[in-house]
Write a sequence for this structure.
């Protein structure tokens, strides 16, 4: 014996099985709700979607940014013979000469 399971998505409002449905996700205050609605029952949501601004899409006129980007200063060139800040770089001979002086 073979058993088959058939899942039919129906409109959450009218529950009619002879209508095609679309899934909608509604988010409000941290809550998410998924509903399946036929074309007739989805009318109010479709009208709201036509008038609202989609999340993640930029508005028709881009907002002007007031933040300024600071350009990085060009790297300073070190003159030949100049030493770095911090510890002085010395050769082995210079280190041994200092030891002999002590």
């Amino acid at each position: 014996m073979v058993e088959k399971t058939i899942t039919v998505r129906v409109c959450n409002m009218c529950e009619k099985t002879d209508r095609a449905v679309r899934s909608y996700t509604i988010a409000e205050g941290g809550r998410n709700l998924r509903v399946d609605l036929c074309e007739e029952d989805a009318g109010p949501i479709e009208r709201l979607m036509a008038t609202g601004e989609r999340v993640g899409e930029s508005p028709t006129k881009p907002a002007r940014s007031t933040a300024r980007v600071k350009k990085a200063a060009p790297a300073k060139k070190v003159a030949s013979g100049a030493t770095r800040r911090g510890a002085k770089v010395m050769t082995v001979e210079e280190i041994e000469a200092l030891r002999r002086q002590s």
Summary: Residues 53 and 59 are 7 Å apart (CA to CA). Residues 1-53 form a domain with the Wheat Germ Agglutinin (Isolectin 2); domain 1 fold (CATH 3.30.60). Strands lie at 21-28, 31-38. The longest strand covers residues 21-28.
